[in-house]
Every structure is written in structure tokens, then in C-alpha cells.
Amino acid sequence: MSRIVPEGEEDTITPPDHFRIWPDDARQLLKSLPDGCLDRAYLMFPDPWPKARHAKRRFIHPENIRELARLLKPGAVWRVASDHPVYQDWVFEIMGAQDLFDAPPPAKGERPEDWSPTRYEAKAYREGRVPFYWTFTRRGA
């Protein structure tokens, strides 16, 4: 996003016509989209909601997985990155219990070449946390 709208200029620059920012809960947007409309999705360093009582707020959740599977075309990829140990364990648990995506082991500690860096990733490295990078593939219809 910083290549399109430089950091600090979000309020003063007009993004390209094809670029949209959804300022509300992404789950609302996902429910309004048609089946099979996405070739790729990203969940980069989401809020980990580390307390157990807040687990229902985590984006990686069975209901959201079903919704994202509905939107992604068969063979489409969903990239997920997290530096938080609680969230990493959660992704292993939840994605290991579903059958909509192939869930290979993540790349650990080294961003895959074709992934863009993020500010949250840089912060994780500065603070000594090890990011995990998953590439889930939507199973065929």
C-alpha cells in the first residue's frame, strides 16, 4: 500500500480509482462479495487477541475460513503472516482442523521472496520476534 499511498499522506492523496480501502470490519465486506471472486488474499500480521477469552475475535476462525474459502477460486492462495506465538499456535490448530485449504508448514523467520515487507514485520524483527509465513491453497471445488 505504501507504494500507492506513501505513509503519512493517507489524508492528502487520492488513491487510484481501482484501489479501495475498507475502514470497517472486513467480515462485513467478505459477506457482500460473490462466490469465487478472489484469486488471492492476504492476512498480514493481524491483531493476535492473545487472551483466550478474545479468541473469537481472531480473524483465523472456522467461520471466517469458510467465508474466505467461498470467495477464493479453487487453487487460489491465502497468505498469512504472524509474529505472535499465541496467534501462530492458533493458526496451526485451526488450519490443521479444516479441510478447505491445503495447509503446509509455514516458512519460519524468513519472508518468502515474493512477499512484500510490512512495518509490522520490521517491528517484529526489531523486537526479537520470529514471524511465520503461511501459504494456504484453496482446495478444488
From TrEMBL:
Keywords for this protein: Methyltransferase, S-adenosyl-L-methionine, Transferase, tRNA processing
Enzyme class label: transferase
InterPro entries named among the record's database cross-references: SAM-dependent_MTases_sf, tRNA_(Gua-N-7)_MeTrfase_Trmb
The keyword Transcription is annotated on this UniProt entry: no
Listed Pfam families: Methyltransf_4 (PF02390)
Top-level taxon in the UniProt lineage: Bacteria
Catalytic activity reported: guanosine(46) in tRNA + S-adenosyl-L-methionine = N(7)-methylguanosine(46) in tRNA + S-adenosyl-L-homocysteine
Family annotation (PANTHER family): 3-DEOXY-D-MANNO-OCTULOSONIC-ACID TRANSFERASE/TRNA GUANINE-N 7 - -METHYLTRANSFERASE, PENTACOTRIPEPTIDE-REPEAT REGION OF PRORP DOMAIN-CONTAINING PROTEIN
Role summary: Catalyzes the formation of N(7)-methylguanine at position 46 (m7G46) in tRNA.
Protein name per Swiss-Prot or TrEMBL: tRNA (guanine(46)-N(7))-methyltransferase
Organism of provenance: Asaia krungthepensis NRIC 0535
